[in-house]
């Protein structure tokens, strides 16, 4: 949809409209000292400039004391609210400076002419305001402010060329430099905030992608578990008419229907597995994930490999009951990931692994605790992708268990998972 072009008056109004909310200068800084600095500078300069300006206008420029006080207040006090609204503060102060220059013009110069049209205090105050404007406003606003300041200076120069001593040129030059510096600092701050926001978004996307990848990987592993059950159902349904004598025809048809449905389910599961494959696991159909999924019976082999990697591990795994395949796989993977984290982040740390059933037989407890790493051994990795803890949480959530992880007070790390051996529905129907 085409936009209506702005009229010159509307463009001028937009140019001199403050950009953004009235947030303090340096308000985004994480350091408190930097956030307080603009207020401190404003208060110090107001305390210095206000009495000097009033005295100088009365004694040096022979203005009425009351008029000098009013002009001094309007010239200096805007510095206080320039911290939040620098463009408005500049507008008020610049108007007061212009009125003051016009008022001085009505008095003849003394034997020792003073700087004009801008007093020395006015130049200091305007330079501070120009820097504040540069730190906050848009580039076209900065150009307009500098142009207006120069235009008013030139007009006064043309009105009384013999009275001006050229100090307005210094104001334009130094003010232009401060506007450029302020604009560059503002652009740098905007860029840094944008990068910080993008990093936050990227971190959130990374966490989300990590979670999805772990869920897909767990789903691919559980495919074998579910496929095994479906295969058993198919075989039992197919062989039932041969194993059980005297089945009626209706029962034979029912078993045949069950076997056909199980085969269709296996086919759909293979298609689902193809959807869950990513670029790293994709390959020719039927060529991946053929290895049987491990269980707790392979944890001793995992311990031996960890010991060979230089981590002393103590294993406690008393006699375990028959475990559901999902729990069996989850217990192994949680132990595997916890030991991998020890090898990466705490090489050489003494580690204790315990896999045992609860006393009441309702759950399996997996506990991996490592001591503080040895000081002389640097960690293999100082950061991580976050896949490990995310994967543990997802596996525990899958079977309806609980996970407790965190550092220990004396150093080291603890991973404790409880995996229930039956669902609530199974317990209620038993």
From TrEMBL:
Main EC class the enzyme belongs to: transferase
Protein name: histidine kinase
Matches recorded under InterPro entries: HATPase_C_sf, HATPase_dom, Sensor_HK_TwoCompSys, Sig_transdc_His_kin_sub3_dim/P
Alphabetical keyword list: ATP-binding, Kinase, Membrane, Nucleotide-binding, Phosphoprotein, Transferase, Transmembrane, Transmembrane helix, Two-component regulatory system
Transmembrane segments: 37-57, 63-80, 87-106, 118-135, 142-160, 166-185
Any one GO molecular-function label of the UniProt entry: phosphorelay sensor kinase activity
Residue ranges of every copy of the Signal transduction histidine kinase subgroup 3 dimerisation and phosphoacceptor domain listed in the record: 214-279
SUPFAM superfamilies given in the database record: ATPase domain of HSP90 chaperone/DNA topoisomerase II/histidine kinase
Catalytic activity: ATP + protein L-histidine = ADP + protein N-phospho-L-histidine
GO cellular component: membrane
PANTHER family: NITRATE/NITRITE SENSOR PROTEIN NARX-RELATED, NITRATE_NITRITE SENSOR PROTEIN NARQ
Record-annotated Histidine kinase/HSP90-like ATPase domain positions: 330-422
Entry's EC annotation: 2.7.13.3
């Amino acid at each position: 949809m085409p936009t209506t072009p702005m009229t010159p008056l509307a463009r001028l109004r937009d140019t001199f409209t403050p950009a953004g909310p009235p947030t303090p200068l340096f308000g985004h800084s994480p350091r408190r000292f930097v956030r307080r600095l603009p207020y401190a500078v404003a208060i110090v300069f107001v305390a210095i400039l206000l009495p000097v300006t009033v005295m100088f206008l009365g004694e040096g420029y022979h203005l009425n004391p009351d008029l000098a006080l009013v002009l001094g207040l309007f010239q200096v006090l805007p510095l206080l609210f320039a911290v939040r609204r620098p463009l408005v503060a500049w507008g008020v102060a610049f108007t007061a400076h212009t009125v003051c220059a016009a008022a001085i013009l009505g008095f003849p110069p003394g034997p020792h002419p003073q700087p004009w049209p801008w007093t020395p205090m006015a130049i200091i105050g305007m330079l501070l305001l120009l820097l504040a404007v540069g730190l906050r406003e848009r580039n076209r606003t900065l150009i307009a402010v500098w142009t207006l300041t120069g235009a008013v200076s030139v007009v006064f120069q043309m009105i009384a060329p013999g009275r001006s001593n050229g100090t307005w040129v210094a104001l334009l030059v130094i003010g232009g430099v401060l506007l450029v510096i302020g604009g560059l600092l503002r652009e740098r701050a905007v860029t840094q905030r944008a990068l910080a926001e993008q990093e936050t978004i990227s971190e959130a996307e990374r966490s989300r992608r990590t979670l999805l990848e772990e869920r897909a990987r767990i789903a691919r592993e559980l495919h074998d578990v579910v496929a095994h059950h479906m295969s058993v159902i198919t075989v039992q349904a197919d062989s039932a008419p041969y194993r059980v004598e005297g089945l009626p025809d209706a029962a034979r048809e029912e078993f045949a229907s069950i076997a056909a449905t199980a085969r269709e389910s296996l086919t759909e599961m293979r298609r689902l597995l193809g959807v869950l494959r990513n670029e790293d696991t994709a390959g020719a159909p039927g060529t991946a994930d053929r290895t049987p999924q491990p269980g707790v019976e392979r944890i001793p082999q995992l311990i031996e490999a960890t010991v060979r990697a230089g981590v002393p591990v103590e294993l406690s795994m008393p006699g375990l009951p028959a475990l559901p395949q999902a729990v069996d796989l989850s217990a192994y993977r949680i132990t595997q990931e916890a030991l991998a984290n020890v090898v990466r982040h705490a090489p050489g740390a003494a580690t204790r692994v315990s896999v045992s059933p609860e006393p009441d037989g309702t759950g399996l407890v997996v506990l991996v605790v490592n001591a503080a790493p040895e000081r002389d051994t640097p960690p293999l990795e100082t950061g991580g992708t976050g896949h490990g803890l995310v994967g543990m949480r997802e596996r525990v959530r899958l079977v309806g268990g609980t996970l407790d992880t965190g550092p220990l007070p004396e150093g080291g790390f603890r991973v404790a998972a409880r995996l229930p051996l039956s669902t609530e529905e199974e317990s209620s129907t038993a």
